[in-house]
Design brief:
α1 packs antiparallel against α2. β6, α6 and β7 form a beta-alpha-beta unit. The relative contact order is 0.13. This protein is of the alpha/beta class. It binds S-adenosyl-L-homocysteine. S-adenosyl-L-homocysteine binds next to β2, α4 and β4.
């Protein structure tokens, strides 16, 4: 499938919608306007790609709602060359948004089926991550730490301590915490031992699960 003028027009509409919902960061909006979301979705749902909604992908997972992707990305305050760890690669859409903003992205997925699909797909449409891993996101990625930012795109039942310890001083962790609904939570590492915590509204994510599958 291709990316056409029609798709670009739909993306511009989508950007307007999420801007109206409160997203202000120009680089985030630019990335949403650029990444061809329809290519990340199973063919049956392509017509819905530019609605501001989550949709099913393989292995009973979802591609996050564009507003949610934009909201989390805005909280990360991504700068070019930042090294960012993503937990929950899924379709790779969030990964592509981060790469589009100039980040060096490390991403972990626990579903074999999705991992195999996305590791082939992303480079095919021109998005090169630093590393894509099949593994357990609760552990983070100690060998590539510390990170400027860590983003968790599944609902975490609790805060995985390993992730906090893999942040640089000044680094930001964006994680939805909770069981059926999640509170979007931002941790900023202010020193070796200290973290600032901010809670930023409720969202619904598929659950962050233990172990690989
Ligand atoms: N960022 C994705 C969102 C996918 S939904 C996108 O833009 O499409 C969340 C993803 O987190 C799912 O693919 C799910 O399999 C994955 N996931 C759940 N628990 C995980 C864990 N412990 N480690 C890594 N990935 C996990």
């Amino acid at each position: 499938m291709k990316d056409t003028h029609k798709h670009q027009g739909l993306r511009n509409q989508l950007v307007k919608t999420i801007e109206e919902k409160g997203i202000r960061n120009k680089n985030v909006l630019k990335a949403i306007a650029t990444v061809p979301r329809h290519l990340f979705m199973d063919s049956g749902f392509v017509d819905f790609a530019y609605q501001d909604k989550a949709f099913p992908i393989a292995a009973e997972q979802t591609i996050s709602q564009p507003y949610t992707v934009a909201f989390q990305t805005e909280l990360l305050e991504v700068k070019p060359n930042d090294s960012i760890l993503e937990i929950g690669t899924g379709s790779g859409y969030q990964t592509a948004v981060l790469i589009e903003m100039g980040a060096k992205v490390y991403t972990i997925e626990r579903q074999k089926e999705l991992f195999k699909k996305t590791i082939l797909f992303l480079p095919k449409i021109g998005y090169k991550s630093k590393k894509m891993l099949f593994g357990d996101g609760y552990k983070g990625l100690p060998e590539n730490a510390p990170f400027d930012g860590i983003i968790v795109t599944a609902g975490a039942p609790f805060l995985p301590k390993a992730l906090l310890s893999q942040l640089k001083i000044g680094g930001r962790l964006v994680i939805p915490i909770g069981d059926t609904v999640q509170t979007m939570t931002l941790y900023i590492r202010t020193s070796e031992k200290n973290f600032e915590k901010h809670e930023l509204g409720t969202f619904r994510f598929v659950p962050m699960l233990k172990k690989r599958n």
